[in-house]
Write a structure and sequence with these properties.
Number of domains: 4
Mean pLDDT: 81
Low-confidence stretches: 1-7, 347-354, 735-743
CATH topology of the largest domain: Multidrug efflux transporter AcrB transmembrane fold
Strand content: 5-15%
Oligomer: single chain
Number of strands: 11
Helix content: 55-70%
Number of helices: 25
Largest sheet: 5 strands, antiparallel
CATH superfamily of the largest domain: Multidrug efflux transporter AcrB transmembrane domain
Length: 743
């Protein structure tokens, strides 16, 4: 039976969908033109992914600036050539082999200097069987060193090795070359395609989210180069942004494809169904995307340039996804909307008669209804079990150790790891994290004070050795290299840095007027960690506050706002606990390829919070918007919760499965930072979509009852009416449809 939809004027998103549907060819050409323009601009003006990980204004940054002026070789990119011999390294035969190796390395591309370990201070280890030669490259960052040239260095070291003589190379350029290329985007797309086929059962319905996500990825990944031209962007940021774009693009369009099929089942023609989809589910998508933008914007509070770069690249990806969902998706519906059920596979939901519930939704499956009603009956038990499980997952984070993973956390078969271990065995653990003490010299008195300064530093508890002071050719800058007794990741090394800065150096340099700065990779890592720790409360407070305001305006409920913020914080805390457990290097770490105890980089929980809080809000918006739609229609809190959970359970679990697989594609990465981000975000999405959204949120809302939808009258009058759930009643046919066949 044909029905006539109620005449109504859709909102802005609905009107935009109608225009895109009717002018679909123009929309496609517009996106193709946008891709071409972005590619052209990036080719002409794109920058490299270079980043300064130092903390602005820190002591280590001041030391680095002095190094650049006075000792450019020390400030440039180094490679350590570590040799371990069964015979003393001063043996003529061993010395001849080492000399041949160093002479060959001097001839290779980008090598500008090689120290002689037999004459350079600190070149020979106390055990007499280990030596280290510093090799200086003509590049400022490891990313600038061509991988093929680094591989030639490694080949020379491997050729020089023989029984009784072990040669290994260390340094960031070596680590970068050995880590290889990694691209998890295609793995995520393939996994998402399989899940979508199982969810929808038709190639057309499954292909729409993939098509929109790929289009968004093509444009946003191209624009990342333009962002890198104007600000610092770390090399891991484009990978994170690409995965975010894929995951969000697929999730958002998954929600809208589901809603489109429901409107078709309710009797709307393809164009009207597309308009209704954008005017209902599309609003939830825009709010969800806005929460992700707010979360990423919070990274600016950290005050670190590389965090701002990572945030902007990711925000560009999210904006492109939102634009694609609002324009490209309805245009594709213009081509394929009437074929949404074509090319059905023998998997997923079978074709047949589907009951249309109130509001134009397909009636939820009996399984989701039974689950919803079980939580309604056992809501107190669900709250206790869910809350206890979340706290148990978060517990390992209490013992997390912060720091920067180094070569000591690399795979055992990598040359960088072997060089790290050889240095630690021959020279002591501190040889892998020397502290560079740098000071300006003003006059002869300052230079004469260097021996006394060196003696004071050498007498400091925790210092293993101090190399003789070095003065630059102009006599303006002095350098003391300090080897701690402990490794770069040890808490005692951090204590030593603070002791030098707070007590030893001010006292020792006061008489001669020396202003000494402590730098080097280890000191810089300590400064960055402390800077992030100072900015984290501002990040959390700002993101949570703005997100709560957005939820309050969207759902007009103080209780929904507060519970959503609490649940999202629980999700993030549980994810932190999972990452901390994996980084311990025990049975959990070995499952993902981490076999040593590894510190957690401070920016990992920071980035995770910004990303996960926004993604958690996505599922909250999807779930609560459907609940509020039922609440506005029936005024029955229990029914609204059951309807919302049963009506979105299938969509949220499918969307979560896609996000989990997309982020899990980072786990095989050889980079510990990317690996830990992948583990944390995959775990967080899994936890959030199962324990939180499918258990805790509905259980808590059942306990709270009608208070869920309360807000003060004075506040309610002042909040603008956004209708995040849309106005589905405006698109329903005049008569309630009978069970309809999905076409």
């Amino acid at each position: 039976m044909t029905t006539t939809p109620t005449q109504s004027r859709p909102g802005p998103l609905g009107r935009l969908a109608g225009v895109a549907f009717r002018h679909r060819w123009r929309v496609l050409l517009g996106w193709a033109a946008a891709l071409a323009v972005a590619a052209g601009l990036t080719a002409a003006f794109g920058g490299d992914y270079e980043v300064d990980y130092s903390s602005p204004g820190s002591d280590s940054q001041q030391a680095q600036r002095l190094l650049l002026d006075g000792f450019p070789a020390q400030a440039g990119e180094p490679v350590d050539v570590v040799v371990r011999s069964d015979e003393p390294v001063t043996d003529p035969g061993v010395q001849a082999d080492v000399t041949v190796l160093l002479d060959e390395l001097r001839t290779l591309p980008h090598v500008v200097a090689v120290d002689d370990p037999y004459t350079a201070a600190g070149g020979l280890a106390p055990d007499g069987q280990t030596l280290v030669a510093r090799l200086s490259l003509d590049v400022d960052a490891p990313e600038d060193m061509p991988v093929e040239d680094t591989e030639r260095l490694l080949a020379a070291a491997e050729e020089a090795s023989r029984p009784g003589l072990e040669v290994a190379l260390g340094g960031d350029a070596i680590r970068l070359a050995e880590s290889g290329e990694f691209g998890g985007e295609m793995v995520g797309l393939v996994a998402a395609a399989v899940i979508l086929l199982v969810t929808f059962g038709t190639v057309v319905a499954a292909g729409l989210p993939i098509g929109v996500a790929v289009a968004g990825l093509a444009v946003s990944s191209t624009l990342a180069g333009l962002v890198a031209a104007v600000m610092d962007v770390p090399d891991w940021a484009p990978i994170l942004a690409s995965l975010m774009g894929i995951a969000l693009g697929i999730d958002y369009v998954l929600l809208m494809v589901t809603r489109f099929r429901e409107w078709r089942a309710a009797g709307l023609d393809p164009e009207r169904a597309a308009v209704a989809t954008l005017d209902t589910a599309g609003r939830a998508v825009m709010v969800a995307g806005s929460t992700v933008m707010v979360s990423m914007f919070g990274l600016f509070a950290m005050g670190l340039s590389f965090m701002r770069g990572a945030a902007v690249v990711t925000m560009v990806a999210v904006l492109v996804v939102m634009a694609a969902a609002a324009t490209l998706f309805p245009a594709l519906l213009g081509f394929f909307g009437h074929r949404i059920e074509r090319w059905r596979l023998p998997v997923g939901r079978r074709r047949g008669t589907v009951a249309v519930a109130e509001g134009g939704h397909l009636a939820p499956s009996p399984g989701w209804l039974r689950w919803s009603r079980l939580i309604e009956r056992r809501n107190i038990l669900a709250v206790v079990l869910g809350g206890g499980l979340m706290l148990a997952l978060a517990a390992p984070f209490l013992g997390a150790r912060f720091g920067f993973p180094d070569a000591g956390n690399d795979p055992a078969d990598h040359s960088s790891r072997q060089a790290y271990d050889l240095l630690a065995d021959g020279f002591g653990a501190g040889a892998n994290g020397p502290l560079l003490l740098v000071t300006s010299l003003d006059g002869d008195d300052a230079a004469a004070a260097l021996p006394a300064l060196s003696d004071a530093v050498a007498a400091t508890p925790g210092v293993a050795a101090v190399l003789p002071p070095a003065v630059d050719p102009s006599g303006a800058t002095a350098l003391l290299t300090v080897l701690p007794e402990t490794g770069p990741q040890d808490a005692a090394t951090e204590d030593l840095v603070h002791a030098l800065r707070d007590d030893v150096l001010p006292a020792a340099g006061a008489d001669a007027g020396l202003d000494v700065h402590v730098g080097g990779v280890t000191a810089a890592a300590i400064d960055v960690n402390e800077s992030m720790a100072d900015g984290l409360p501002l990040l959390i407070g700002g993101v949570v506050t703005v997100s709560m305001v957005l939820l309050l305006v969207s759902f007009r409920s103080v209780v929904v706002m507060l519970t959503a913020a609490l649940m999202n914080l629980l999700s993030v805390a549980a994810a932190y606990g999972v990452v901390a457990l994996v980084l311990e290097g025990g049975w959990a770490g070995q499952l993902v390829g981490i076999d040593t105890e590894t510190p957690m980089p401070a920016y990992v929980p920071v980035v995770m919070f910004a990303v996960l809080f926004g993604l958690s809000m996505d599922y909250e918006v999807f779930l609560i918007s459907r609940m509020r739609e039922s609440w506005m229609r029936t005024g029955d809190n229990a029914r609204a919760i059951v309807d919302g959970l049963a009506g979105t359970g299938r969509v949220i679990t499918a969307a979560a499965a896609i996000m989990v697989t997309v982020f899990a594609a980072l786990v095989p990465s050889p980079d510990v930072v990317l690996k830990s981000l992948g583990v944390g975000m995959a775990a967080a999405i899994l936890i959030d979509a199962t324990i939180v959204r499918m258990l805790l949120v509905p259980a808590v809302m059942h306990v709270l009852g009608r208070a869920n939808w309360w807000s003060p009258r004075w506040l309610d009058r002042r909040i603008p009416q956004l209708y995040v759930e849309g106005r589905p009643e405006l698109f329903l046919p005049e008569r309630e449809p009978e069970p309809a066949l999905v076409r």
